[in-house]
Amino acid sequence: MKINMIGSVGSGKSTLGRRISSEMGIPLYELDNVVWQRNESGDIRNSPEVRDKEFNRIIKQKDWIIEGVHHTWTTNGFREADIIIYLDTPVMVRNWRILKRFTVQKLGFEKGNYKQTWSMLRKMYQWNYQFEKVSKPEIMNILKPHGDKLKIITDNRSIKEITL
How sure is the predictor about 110, in pLDDT bands with cuts at 50, 70 and 90? Predict the structure, then answer.
């Protein structure tokens, strides 16, 4: 099974991806970890060549779940996926989740992929609003040819409604 999940920051991709991965025994890959080389001293952006090589390695596997907001360089993932899940959660729900994640990780109750800073929180909110105006229309256009395998959900808890 190959599942491609896409949505804005705070839409619930990681949470849903972990749940499906656990229930189905399918490896989960976060696209942010393909874009960034994680280091204690700070993240370093991978070159497009390194990023694309790793992405293509992932999608050549028998089973996978990939999740992220990235859509311009990941079109092969949409083509290879058996199911595409687009998480179209409301902006205010995402805003709450962004703040909750920031607080929980800033206080050390949960480990994140990056250091939570006030600057990063501000960027998350900017990306969230930009997603509605710019990325969402682009993504919907990219996904048009894949309508037969596209599942749009407005709440990541409603995955039970989708037949995987």
Answer: confident
| Cα-based distances in Å from 90 to 25, 87, 140 | 29, 9, 16
Contact 159, 24 (CB under 8 A): no
Give the position of tokens 């992929």: 113
Print the SS3 string covering 31-52: CHHHHEECCCCCCEECCHHHHH
Rounded CA separation 64/132 (Å): 27
Looking at the chain, how many residues does it have?
Answer: 164
Q: Which amino acid, residue 141?
A: N
Q: Is 147 in contact with 156 (CB distance < 8 Å)?
A: no
d(CA 87, CA 5): 7
47, 100 Cβ separation under 8 angstroms:
no
Domains defined for the chain, CATH in brackets: 2-161 (3.40.50.300)
Q: Is 142 helix (H, G, I), strand (E, B) or coil?
A: helix
Which 8-state DSSP code applies to residue 133? Answer: I
Say if CB 21 and CB 161 are below 8 A apart.
no
Q: Is this model's pTM higher than 0.85 or not?
A: no
Q: Give Rg (Cα) of the chain.
A: 15
User: Are the C-beta atoms of 68 and 32 separated by less than 8 Å?
Assistant: yes
